[in-house]
C-alpha cells in the first residue's frame, strides 16, 4: 500500500540532532537559488554547516514549528544535498536507525508504518 503521509511533518528531530554540513558551493554564494548563504556558517575552505546545527542543543535555524508536533523546513526547496539524502525511517520499507536515534533523543518513538498512514 502507498504511504498517504510522511512522518517528518510531525517530527523534525533530525533537524535538531545532526550537524547539517555540506559543500559550500551548494549555498547561494556558489549556486543561484541554493541554500541561503546567510543561514550557513563556514567550517573550513570546503564545508559550511546550517546555522544552529552544532552545539549541545542543536536546532537548524531553518526549522520552524514544534518538534514532535508540527514542523516545516522553511527552505525546503533550497535545502542542501545532505538534507535531501536523509530518508525517514521506513521510506520504501527500509529502517533508518539514524532517524529513529534522532527521534529517541526528542522522546519520540521509532517510525512505524502507521506514521506513514499505512495500515498493517
Ligand atoms: S527524524 Fe526521521 S521522521 Fe523525523 S523529520 Fe527526520 S527523517 Fe523525518
Ligand atoms: S535545512 Fe531544513 S531539512 Fe535541513 S536541517 Fe535545516 S530544517 Fe532540516
List keywords for this structure.
alpha+beta; three-stranded antiparallel sheet; two-stranded antiparallel ribbon; 11% helix; 15% strand
What's the topology here?
Elements: E1 21-23, E2 40-42, E3 47-50, E4 63-66, E5 70-73, H1 81-84, H2 97-105
Antiparallel strand pairs: 1-3, 2-3, 4-5
Bound molecules: iron/sulfur cluster (2 copies).
Structure commentary:
The protein has 120 residues and is of the alpha+beta class. It has one domain. The protein contains two helices and five strands; from the N terminus they run E-E-E-E-E-H-H. The strands form two sheets. A three-stranded antiparallel sheet has the order 1-3-2, with no helix packed on it. Strand 4 (63-66) and strand 5 (70-73) form a beta hairpin. It starts with 20 loop residues before the first strand and ends in a 15-residue tail after the last helix. The structure holds iron/sulfur cluster (2 copies).
Strand order of the largest sheet: 1-3-2
The total beta strand count reads 5
Strand content: 15-25%
Q: Which kinds of small molecule does this entry bind, naming each only once?
A: iron/sulfur cluster
* Radius of gyration from the alpha-carbon trace, in angstroms: 15 Å
- Profile the largest sheet: 3 strands, antiparallel
If helices are DSSP runs of H or I spanning 4 or more residues, what is the number of helices? 2
Amino acid at each position: 500500500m502507498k504511504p498517504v503521509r510522511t512522518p517528518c511533518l510531525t517530527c523534525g528531530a533530525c533537524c535538531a540532532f545532526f550537524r547539517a554540513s555540506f559543500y559550500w558551493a551548494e549555498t547561494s554564494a556558489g549556486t543561484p537559488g541554493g541554500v541561503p548563504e546567510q543561514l550557513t556558517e563556514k567550517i573550513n575552505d570546503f564545508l559550511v554547516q546550517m546555522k544552529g546545527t552544532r552545539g549541545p542543543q542543536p536546532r537548524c535555524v531553518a526549522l520552524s514549528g514544534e518538534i514532535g508536533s508540527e514542523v516545516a523546513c522553511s527552505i525546503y526547496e533550497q535545502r542542501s544535498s545532505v538534507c535531501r539524502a536523509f530518508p525517514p525511517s521506513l521510506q520504501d520499507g527500509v529502517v533508518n536507525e539514524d532517524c529513529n536515534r534522532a527521534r529517541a533523543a526528542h522522546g519520540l518513538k521509532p517510525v512505524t508504518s502507521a506514521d506513514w498512514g499505512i495500515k498493517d
